[in-house]
């Protein structure tokens, strides 16, 4: 096999992966917990872009409940963001799994 051809293909893959990584910030996912009392929006880089808490979820006597709701919503958003990022990177790499690239 031609080594120059392989090098060109590797450069194309590298460029596609770099482009896909840049686009991760454009991916938007949302998750909620407590029947919508806490909502989290996140991008494909797992950065929280918005967090909303319904006033009904704020009970000074039950701080643990709010903490649990926020934790659950963030974890759900992270899972969705990772899945979306993995799908985006998979498209860029033609389905080749490259450890540590997304998520």
What's the structural blueprint in terms of helices and strands?
Elements: H1 3-23, E1 28-33, E2 38-43, E3 48-53, H2 63-92
Antiparallel strand pairs: 1-2, 2-3
Helix pairs in contact: 1-2
Second rung of CATH, namely the architecture: 2-Layer Sandwich
CATH topology (level 3) name: Ybab, Chain: A
What order do the SSEs take from the amino end to the carboxyl end, as H and E? Answer: HEEEH
CATH superfamily: Nucleoid-associated protein YbaB-like domain
Count of helical stretches:
2
Distance between the termini: 33 Å
Q: Mean pLDDT score, rounded?
A: 88
How much of the polypeptide forms β-strand, as a percent range?
A: 15-25%
Q: What characteristic shape results from the CA principal axes?
A: rod-shaped
Radius of gyration: 19 Å
Keywords:
103 residues, Ybab, Chain: A, 2 helices, 3-stranded antiparallel sheet
